[in-house]
Amino acid sequence: KNPRFLGPLYKKYSGDSFGDWTVIARNSDYLFDQIANKLSDEQKRLITLTSKPVSKDVLDNYVNIDPKARADFYDRLSDVLAERTNVLETSMALPFITLNDGKGYQIIPYKKGTNKVIVKTGSKYLSGKEGNGLQYSDSLGDDEVFELVQIGNSNDGKFQFRLNNKNGVSLAGNQYTSQFGTDWSFKSEIRFSDKSNNEINNWLIEWYPGKENEKQNYDKIEIISNEKDPTKYSAKDSSGNVIKNSWINRGTGYSFADAEGVILTGWQEIKEKTYYFSSPYGYMVTGGGSDSLIDGKYYNFNDSGVLQRSAWRDLYYSDASGAFVKEGLKDIDGKIYYFQNFVPNKKELRLEDQNVILHFSDKGVLERVSNLNGEAINNAVNVKLDNKILAFNNDGSILKTGINKNANTIAYYSLEDGAFYTGWKMIDGKRYYFTNGHNTIFNNYENIDGKRFYFHEDGSVNRAGFEKIDGKLYHFDNNGVAQTGWQTIDNKYYYFDENGAAKTGWFQVGGGYRPWPLAYGYLWYCAREDGSLYADGWFKIDGKDYHFDQWGHKM
């Protein structure tokens, strides 16, 4: 099977929300078997092509010499240049006239994330050339790419659009004619006559900018027992089709159907966001009330059902797992809070056994320590609470989490590590070394674990090049700063995350560069254990062959 064609067709027809991962993880026979009944004979032949790619000159000669081949090439061109997985087939009408005598059009998104489209009827492409009447073309150029702009609904509530050519001129008309042009009698509000608002909106959600976070709606749904597993549920639309890979508005809440049409339950990742669906009926949980009690913990969901990590909700705070903090100390954005029954404490906290009072602000932020008489303590003091160490300065103020500087030393403190940490720390992209929470070496060299490092004026440590810290690989420039993002090092490509750690194995990065017409979307890369990308050739990875272009994109 030809992976160049099999992969895209699998993602188009399988309904697999994890299509990219499946293409990587499964063999070609499995992928083909999953979609074989949905493929045309022509598509099956395409998948089994084993011929090698030809040069541009060979293809150019073939197309120009054979008129039939030329027509076939231009007819297929939209399959290469546009987002063919999201085609809307419908007739189009202006207020006074139906276009193309009511014959259907294909509205083909040019690429995800823009409002550009190609419009096709039969083998012809609608042209945006201005003049008398609508014009059509056998080939694609900038005249055949349009902006589809959603405008206000009609008086009867129907979706309306404008179709603008490269000059910004709209397709318009009256009861006698339609064209790209202007006239006092012209109207330019386009309707997709064969489709309901819900059908159009569900189509837009897949590609139109600003629609990506909306949920699908259907004119009518019917909840049924799943045919394969009666303990689970599915939903059918008004046409009797099982709804797949889609949100389902059930009136009293939302559910989500997977690629097999099964309504999901439990924790789920959908478009890189985390949701929870209650059992057994699969209703999405929202808010932070009683419904959000899951396995003994309350979780923080917004009104759209998305799990909120490390976020406030009124007086309550959810940690990195999304669960509300119930009890204990918590460092939030460099400020220390003490939670009691989910709410930050705002009152004085007397610790008789340590002869101190902890003072909190009206927002619940720990500010200072005093003795039991409320008097300032004139020396640095450490207080034990919740099995953690709270460190205070000489004036009684709380020691700032992170790095604290004075003339002769820098000190490191955090709730998790305490005030006496020994070892390496990455802070704001720089590397530091502390002994018992302090460092006193500046503008000088020091040997650590048999390696020689230079300590800068700010106390950060420089050993230019690659270093593995806590199992992660970093690369430091000559200033001791961990590099981030894309880097070319010794003619090899690397990608370092926002903290400076090199990506290894399979990963995605939004954007990036890929030769036109594939320059959009999220691209797949694979890096070796040393962080360098596989690039410019075929490579065997985990027993399978993969092809990468010269920039490291998986083809």
UniProtKB/TrEMBL annotation:
Keywords assigned by UniProt, alphabetized: Repeat
UniProt keyword annotation of Repeat present: yes
Record keyword Isomerase present: no
Gene3D superfamilies xref list: Cholin Binding
Residue ranges of Cell wall-binding repeats: 483-502
Protein name: Cell wall-binding protein
Species: Bacillus toyonensis
